[in-house]
Design brief:
The strands form four sheets. The chain has a six-stranded mixed β-sheet, sandwiched between helices. Strands 14-18-15-16-17 form a five-stranded antiparallel β-sheet, with no helix packed on it. α2 (92-102) runs parallel beside α4 (136-148) and α3 crosses α4. By secondary structure, the chain is of the alpha+beta class. It has eight helices and 19 strands. The longest helix has 18 residues, at 166-183. Helix content is 24%, strand content 32%. Keywords: ATP-binding, Cell membrane, Membrane, Nucleotide-binding, Sugar transport, Transport. One of its GO terms (molecular function) is ATP binding. Residues 4-234 form the ABC transporter domain.
């Protein structure tokens, strides 16, 4: 088991700086998820840890050793890619054992590793099949198993579930989390899917434009987003972002939602943005605010209510079975203790 320490990392492709002076500490045994939109640099960062991309500056230490310029085979990592990349003419057993066989590992040791990985991933009955005889989920399990038999200190996952349907993704998410609990190895996982990030991660690294926006536990980044980008990227339905202006007394907000904020949190005349999670809105007959329902989305165990609040769109999560229809006028209150407040100019959270 190894940790990863990245200091001052920069990566350029021509004149395009993809990673910008990045520092990151991946602790031993944690499940770290790199989360962000396409093009934010998360896969590039993962590939640099694996040694698949040359860095322009900075250093990468794995298990306390400087691996900045080391070959991928020397880094003690196991990697799972988005594509399965299985050899079609080889059986499951041969695909999983290919790396150790090339490395000259004794046959008995290879058999032990393959059998152990196959048992953990429910692949034992499939060891003699070829990839064409497997489902997509089974092929991805084989790809994961191929990484496991390396018995590496660090496992890297580059969006391994993105090619699977929703049901298979949910199943493999659970299996990956159980696998991490069983092995205890350091795992770094890249995804643009916030559900994967929230369910798998010990800590989440939110990235944008090659720069880390926030690092924290899933609850930290969801409940206390560091800026407007993090707030808007995490959450489904997305957080309600309401522009407002601080009133003359420094604590009341003029505009659509007249709220009271703690003194010292904002300044008179300051333009701010209020972040209201849909689940923090309470529909109740004596609520202080009213809005007109525009759309209702039934989701089985809950409903998403889309409303118009002045000219502002506003969503509410409702978990009871009440009947709500477009055109209804609903009264509601907001749990102000759970509000996020951002400075409109800097877009940073106001603590």
């Amino acid at each position: 088991m190894s940790g990863v320490n990245i200091q001052g990392l920069s990566i350029r492709f021509g004149h395009n700086e993809v990673i910008k002076n990045l520092d990151l500490q991946v602790h031993e045994g944690e499940f770290l998820v790199l989360l962000g939109p396409s093009g934010c640099g998360k896969s590039t960062l993962l590939h640099s840890i694996a040694g698949l991309i040359d860095v322009s500056g900075g250093s990468i230490h794995i298990g306390g050793q400087d691996m900045t310029d080391a070959e991928p085979s020397e880094r003690g990592i196991g990697m799972v890619f988005q594509s399965y990349a299985l050899y079609p003419t080889m059986t499951v057993e041969r695909n999983m054992s290919f790396g150790p066989r090339v490395a000259g590992v004794p046959k008995a040791e290879i058999a032990r590793r393959v059998n152990r990985a196959a048992e953990m991933l429910q692949l034992t009955p499939l060891l003699n099949r070829k990839p064409a005889q497997l489902s997509g989920g089974q092929r991805q399990r084989v790809a994961i198993g191929r990484a496991l038999v390396r018995e590496a200190g660090v496992f890297l996952f580059d969006e391994p579930l993105s090619n699977l349907d929703a049901k298979l993704r949910a199943e493999l998410r659970r299996e990956l989390k159980l696998l991490h609990q069983t092995l205890g190895n350091t795992m770094v996982y890249v995804t643009h899917d916030q559900v994967e990030a929230m369910t798998l991660a010990s800590r989440i690294v939110v990235m944008k434009g090659g720069v880390i926006q926030q690092i924290g536990t899933p609850s930290d980044v969801y409940e206390q987003p560091a800026n407007l980008f993090v707030a808007g990227f995490l959450g489904s339905p997305a957080i309600n972002l309401v522009p407002a202006k601080v009133g003359a007394d420094g604590v009341s907000l003029e505009g659509v939602l007249p709220l009271r904020l703690a003194a010292g949190r904002v300044k008179p005349g300051q333009h701010v943005v209020l972040g209201v999670r849909p689940e923090h809105v309470r529909l109740q007959a004596d609520g202080r605010w009213r809005a007109t329902v525009q759309l209702v989305e039934p989701m089985g165990n809950h409903q998403v209510i889309w409303m118009t609040l002045g000219e502002q769109g506003f969503s509410v999560l409702v978990h009871d079975g009440r009947r709500i229809a477009a055109g209804d006028v609903l009264a509601f209150d907001i749990d102000e203790s759970l509000l996020s407040v951002f400075d409109a100019a800097s877009e940073q959270r106001l603590s």
